[in-house]
UniProtKB/TrEMBL annotation:
Family: Belongs to the TonB-dependent receptor family.
Annotated keywords: Cell outer membrane, Membrane, Receptor, Signal, TonB box, Transmembrane, Transmembrane beta strand, Transport
Name of this protein: TonB-linked SusC/RagA family outer membrane protein
Biased composition annotated in UniProt, kind: Polar residues: 437-449
Organism this protein belongs to: Neolewinella aquimaris
GO biological process terms held by the UniProt record: siderophore transmembrane transport
Amino acid sequence: MHSLPRRLFGSLIFAIALPCLLHAQYSVSGTVKDTDGEPLIGVSVLVVGTTTGTVTDFDGNFTVNVPDDRNALRLSYTGFVPQTVEVSRGMAPVDITLDEDVANLEQVVVTGLASTIKRSNLANAVSVVSGEELTGVTSQQTVDGALYGKLTGVNIVQTSGAPGGGYAVRLRGVSSLSGNNQPLFIVDGVYISNVELPSGSRNASGANSASEESASNRIADLNPDDIESIEVLKGASAAAIYGTRANAGVVIITTKKGVAGETKVSFNQDLGFNTIIKKVGRRTFTADQVEQEFGGTTPDQIAAGKAARAAFEAAQARGEIFDYEDIIYGEKGFISDSRLRVSGGSDRTNFFVSGSYRDEDGIIKGTGYERFTARLNLTHQINDRLKIQSNTNFVRSSASRSFSGNENEGGLSYGYTLAFTRDYVNLFPDEDGNYPDNPNFSGNPLQTRDQTRNEEDINRVLQGINVNYRLLQQDNQTLNLVLNGGLDFILSKTFVYVPENFQSQRGRQNGFLAEGKNDLFNYNYSAIAVHDYYTDSGINFTTQAGITYINQSADQLLTQSTQLIPLQTNLGQGAAQEIDQTLLNVEEFGYVVQEEVNLYDRVILTGGLRFDKSSLNGDPNKFFTFPRASVAVNLNEFDFWNTSGPIDQFKLRAAYGVTGNSASFGRLFTSLTNNNIGGRGGFTVDGQQGNSTLEPETSSEMEFGTDLGLFDNKVSLTATYYIRDVKDLLYDRSLPTSSGFSNEIRNDLDLRNRGFEFQLGLNPVREDNFYYRTTLNFWFNRSEITRLGVPDGSEGEDIPSFVPPGVAFGLGLGTFYINEGSPITGLWENVDGVPTQTGDTEPDFQFGWNNNFTLFQNLDINFLFHWREGSELLNLTRLLTNLGNTTPREYDDLTGFIEDGSYFRLREAGINYRIPLNSDVIRGLKVGISGRNIFTITDYSSYDPETSVKGGSGLSTNIEVAPFPSSRQFYLHLGFDF
């Protein structure tokens, strides 16, 4: 009986000791600081070979339990070089210093929908721009405009110089002929709309299409100062995991988050002004020249010449020779940009709150752009397994863009009216406010400026939710479920008004009024399971699989009224009304699987598949497959590598991937349009013939490259060559009228893009009182149409070369022309009646040179040069000024309207000084000056070689017709940290 208690006691001791025997462990503590001795908060401390770890607290301290069979900790922190520290039982607390990761080798980038990878292990040339690089030099109007010259493989062309932007972004060349060439933008997991919303102004001005209304892209709604980083997946090899929407590349934007620790408050105020980059100038005349230029040989022409001479001499005597180009485009538009940020948090909850207000006047009186944004980003760690992130952004903006660009005889576009307006004609209002008619054209530009309206108002909400739940955690593996959801709601209102007494309105529309309401609602969600498995030998596996869903809907309503009652701006006060409404709904669903194998950081293998179906395809239930595969080999990680040499990193990489792009909404079927004949309503067949067999155009890409780091990573080099084949491009082709249709959409065009990208980073000086870093980017792309028409052996006939509908203005002036074996970006003209390529909008190459100096730790000097060589433009502004005899003399000898658009530009420059303060209230004060588009060296004869009249989609770039001129900006900066 006495042995029973002893046996029970022994069993109890064994039960207590068993977990210790099975999982014997010891505790290690320490402190982590940077090289300046400041504690680092949130450093990841991981026991090597396990998933056990912790993070440092507010003071940089940590404590972690280490299994007896482990003896090393790995510490990692964004922006710093990871460090491995050997530990043992009973050792004293350790003090660890992390060095700055100047080469960004440890920076993590996206490799899947729910996974990341160290940059040093990446197999693709993914470009990353930090928030500091984006906005740290000068104030930025829009996100896409801020990327100029900072990325390889990216061609950006401004579609309007009006405040509020308008840009065409091309990643590695053209990817679609009639579809969208703009990349997919994802902000904190939300698939956002970058649509251009027309206002209907074309119906008053005589422009040819909605794309010619100089609308801005809705990426302009984002506050650039909220952005933490931008990752650009330029090709299919990197973007394949995003499937159908990734044919033109993917831009992944991550906004700023709070950091555990003391609450930080910052306020920044920028004050500046806009001014035109370049005036074309006006032709100056003598009385004899006026009679000669505006006269002729017939009696009527002789009389007209003498009348023009008399008017000129009378105006000269009154001192009324005006420079209307300066009067219209000569404003110095005031700019104010105010930004407030508050961030902080605890060990479980972090927050980031921001508000901004930008008020920008244009170089034309009455034009401008206002944007108010508010953001709340919250991260909450509910427990050790569950973390939730919420990102909420509200935007309210308004723009007044007036009238510019292409039109026929509407008399509204400034470029048109200035081309034909003679500077000796007085167009100013009389004492009663009445504007005289323009005797030389159908509109008075001063009346357009002062009495017409072309406005838009935007209310927008972006909401993203991310839930990360750790389903499994063991020493050598974890399983996470990542749920993402996002919505993007846009309510847009547009207003266009041309008074009934306007010169071109009398006897025609007798006043024009249009109001538009665009209601766009997009939402997306995904559920991805990510499994990480770490072997004892050092081989790691990351597996992910899941589903994605995207829904886009839109209700676009445009109501127009003409024959207005005088002075009325009410749609009901017109004798003729028209209502146009477009309803849109698109659904897309996909499956995703991906496997990543990391062999000791030496060889990293990735393979993945995405299966997508879309309501935009002929068969909405058919899944299309988009594969990807890549390999990265870090030669410097192998045992044979000589670690004492000058080479710190030597990586070889190769990647392959396929992406897609579906037809735009409404292209599958032939639609009906309303008509009214003899008082009876009915329907007629629309001019666009539908095609119910459409499938996505696909882009397959092979990419090869190498990354080098030299001399303690003071020199870094990245080189990439790619071949991208776009198959079965969707495109419009005109049909003979006998068919009953004006054009059809086809799916039988192939295109190849080839290019080279090179980046050289130098960080030769890293001293306390002098720090210098420079980056040189060089890139080019070449395109070729490799197939046009039905392949041999198939039913049907080969398609002859053709001018795509709506891309330019015909072979008589210059246009794009689809010809097998030629670049898709070529500009063609009729030469002796034969279509001949005389230019190419694709640059021969582009070069960006970014420089950053820090002197005495407080003075920052930054400047960015951008060189674009080649890239011809179709300059039809000069065609108009030639017709109106207002072209400056120095351009009289130019033949043809296709010109070289090469330029060298000081894109950005800034000087900022951080004033050291010991105040308990104001912890930091920064003052500075900066500029954007400061000077440009170019032979181009018009306003700016960065121009387009056709918006951001399709073959849109490098077609200039009377644009809203581009501007340069200069700023004074004040920044306070509290």
